[in-house]
Design a protein that fits this description.
By secondary structure, the chain is α/β, with parallel strands linked by helices. The chain folds into three domains: 48 residues, no CATH class; 124 residues, Aspartate Aminotransferase, domain 1 (Alpha-Beta Complex), CATH 3.90.1150.10; 220 residues, Aspartate Aminotransferase, domain 2 (3-Layer(aba) Sandwich), CATH 3.40.640. It is 46% helix and 15% strand. The chain is globular, with a radius of gyration of 25 Å. The N and C termini lie far apart (65 Å). Bound molecules: pyridoxal-5'-phosphate. Pyridoxal-5'-phosphate (PLP) binds next to helix 7.
């Protein structure tokens, strides 16, 4: 009889009448074992029928009440720095395509040639038959660019953070993570099962006090190189010093620094003139300045081998598309050899930051592509984005939970493809909108 109930448990979860009959007919013999049954009994007693529908509806309604509801905007096409929809051409101040390579004509031409010789799909995970020469060529160029021993490529940056962090750290370890680190880092930390200690953003005193007071078999410090919603840069020299002092490994998420910081876009370490060493792991994504898709981690040969053996998001996922890997390889070669790409990017950054400051919208003087204009309430950010849209300018209103409550913002991201005149106009509109909306 017991086996029978167990077998039927799942199907009965939402069938009230049968559950209630079982509950009352079998009395104390009813096999309540562990959380699963207790959860079901709770749902029978407490929930009306259609539990799922009500739950989903309630959550969506609450998002709408808080002005946090999201939907997908749709466009017809992408041009470097601009978006097309119907008859409109919008200045795109939202993309992470920092060097304008995602729709660049010469990369596009190369893509056509590559499509003749490479498959669109790897067909299997890298460990089975999905590892092609182009994957390893891409890893070689990434390791060379980041000045590390080795690299490993993943289908996305999110998957990279999730898998690498949870493979490196585990139960009994301590992870020290900046409070403004990207969601994929937070998810990787949670999945790892390690004790998670979040330090105040870029606050080295807080990091030191946590490192000195929290125990852990192994310690891992994790920071974004460039913070995705604030555009500021992690104080890597201090972080690395602390890591050495407390015997910790440093994990840098260089998603927003790869391709834009440092002399040839090599990222945050090179921005500071720091050398990589074996206790530093650098991850990045090919979906931003590289203009493609996929994630990577740059590290030692030994950690690469370890990840191939233990990193579940790598092992149990099909290898990145060989065609996409070749495109990323091509674009990285371009970033390293065509110095005008970085020069144009830097010029766009200084034009917009300078124009905003001149017009009374204070922004930091940083070499990064991300400029946050913090407006406070979500409604205010949405209104500002809506008014920019009327001027054919698209800038994202970023709201909680992506950013902390009360810090909703317009997040501008720049591209080498933006024209100075368009950026000046955007700064002008933005300053006017902010001034006229001060009372919202
Ligand atoms: C800091 C950071 N890390 C990781 C990721 C994930 O990268 P991907 O888009 O390749 O999944 C992102 C993407 O937004 C990011 O901003």
């Amino acid at each position: 009889m017991r086996t029978d109930y167990e077998a039927r448990g799942l199907n009965l979860a939402c069938n009230h009448s049968e559950w209630i009959r079982l509950l009352f007919c079998y009395g104390s013999n009813f096999p309540i074992r562990g959380k699963y049954y207790i959860g079901n009994i709770y749902s029978v007693i407490m929930s009306p029928k259609n539990t799922w529908g009500k739950y989903i509806q309630k959550r969506l309604e609450s998002q709408k009440e808080k002005a946090h509801f999201r939907s997908l905007p749709r466009f017809d096409s992408l041009q470097p720095g601009y978006l097309l929809a119907g008859d409109n051409r919008y200045l795109n101040l939202c993309a992470n395509d920092y060097l304008g390579l995602a729709a660049d004509p010469s990369s596009h031409e190369e893509g056509k040639v590559l499509a003749e010789v490479l498959p669109s799909g790897a067909g299997a995970s890298r460990l089975v038959t999905g590892n092609l020469a182009i994957h390893e060529e891409l890893e070689k160029i990434l390791a060379d660019w980041k000045k590390t021993e080795a690299a490993l490529v993943f289908p996305s940056g999110y998957q990279t953070n999730l898998g690498v962090i949870s493979a490196l750290a585990g139960k009994g370890d301590s992870v020290f993570s900046d409070k403004l680190n990207h969601a994929s880092i937070i998810d990787g930390c949670r999945l790892s099962g390690a004790a998670l200690h979040r330090y105040r953003h870029n606050d080295m005193n807080d990091l030191q006090s946590l490192l000195s007071s929290k125990r852990g078999r192994k310690k891992l410090i994790i920071t974004d190189g460039v913070f995705s919603m604030d555009g500021d840069i992690a104080p890597l020299p201090e972080i690395i010093d602390l890591a050495r002092h407390y015997g910790a490994m440093v994990f840098i998420d260089d998603a927003h620094a790869s391709g834009v910081l440092g002399p040839n876009g090599a990222g945050t370490l090179s921005h500071y003139g720091l050398e990589w060493d074996k206790d530093i792991v650098v991850m990045g994504t090919m979906s931003k300045a590289i203009g493609c898709q996929g994630g990577f981690v740059c590290t030692t040969n030994e950690i690469r081998e370890y990840l191939i053996n233990f990193c579940r998001s790598f092992i149990y996922s099909t290898g990145i598309s060989p065609w996409m890997a070749a495109m990323a390889h091509f674009n990285i070669c371009r970033i390293r050899s065509e110095s005008q790409l970085l020069a144009q990017f830097r010029s766009a950054v200084s034009v917009l930051r300078g124009e905003l400051n001149q017009r009374g919208v204070p922004v930091d003087d940083l070499p990064t592509p991300i400029i946050p204009i913090v407006l406070g309430e979500s409604r205010r950010a949405l209104q500002c984005a809506g008014e920019l849209l009327q001027q054919n300018i698209i800038a994202a209103a970023i709201r909680p939970p992506t950013v902390p409550d009360g810090t909703a913002r317009i997040r501008i991201s720049l591209s080498a493809a933006h024209q100075a005149d368009d950026l000046k106009k955007a700064a002008e509109f933005l300053a006017e909108i902010i001034e006229s909306n001060d009372s919202i």
